[in-house]
Specification:
244 residues; mainly alpha; 2 domains; disordered N terminus
């Protein structure tokens, strides 16, 4: 089978492609996948990735989550889709390394890496950004943080999480804001459950970094504050007994 390059595929896209309703556009693309029209579906996926936000800025989250998942699933049955996804990831990474890029570009690279199950690639990219563009790298920390901590790169996390108490206050502020939204019928119980899970996970993450960087006192302070907000068993058991 002849594998097309991303450049070749882009040449096939209609010059004046229009898709004002991006969700309808995605639904039609998935229909083509179900019908086995993989080449046409890939053309549309590539167009969506490059142009969707011009038609609907609200597609930012979808573009870097569900749309990438659809693209990756297509690659299971149609290898050129996988090649195209790798090419877009490599192109995005190259742009970041050439001039430091933007927050949105780093977010895109991380999202594609996540889709490709290459979170280590995001950690490595962040390290490269830190070395080459030390003034820009801190802007990207909010994206890189979860991947860095999951990789147990506490040396790297410690440089960006020096004031853990301030980090906790931000977590608490976000929790309070989302909890208020949960009272709105438009959000409801599911949003409240999500808010509580997010709070717990964020607190556990702070405690993990504190313990790993020999800041047990900070870990205990965060635990005490968090338990005053939510009596959560995971938070209660997050700190092992002291040897002293």
């Amino acid at each position: 089978m002849k594998f097309w390059t991303l450049t070749a595929l882009l040449c096939l896209l209609p010059a004046a492609a229009q898709a004002e309703d991006m969700q309808a556009y995605r639904n039609q693309t998935r229909k083509l996948v179900r019908e086995g029209k993989h080449a046409e579906a890939l053309e549309r996926i590539l167009w969506f990735h490059d142009n969707a936000l011009e038609h609907d800025p609200g597609m930012t989250g979808v573009r870097l989550s569900f749309a990438l998942s659809d693209w990756n699933r297509l690659a299971d049955d149609y290898p050129p889709a996988g090649i195209a996804l790798l090419e877009v990831r490599d192109r995005t990474t190259k742009r970041l390394l050439e001039d430091g890029g933007t927050f949105q570009l780093f977010q895109e690279a991380a999202a594609i890496n996540r889709t490709l199950e290459d979170d280590a690639g995001t950690v490595h990219l962040f390290e490269q950004m830190e070395k080459s563009y030390p003034r820009k790298a801190p802007r990207y920390w909010i994206v890189a943080k979860d991947y860095v901590i999951a990789a147990k790169r506490y040396d790297l996390a410690g440089r960006y999480m020096q004031d853990l108490d301030a980090d906790y206050r931000r977590v608490k502020q976000m929790y309070d804001l989302n909890l208020k939204l949960s009272n709105d019928p438009k959000f409801g119980a599911d949003h409240k459950n999500y808010t509580e899970r997010t709070f717990t996970n964020s607190v556990l993450q702070l405690i993990e970094v504190a313990l790993a960087t020999d800041r047990r006192q900070d870990a205990e302070s965060i635990q005490k504050q968090a338990l005053a907000v939510r009596d959560d068993a995971k938070i209660r058991n997050a700190i092992p007994p002291s040897d002293k």
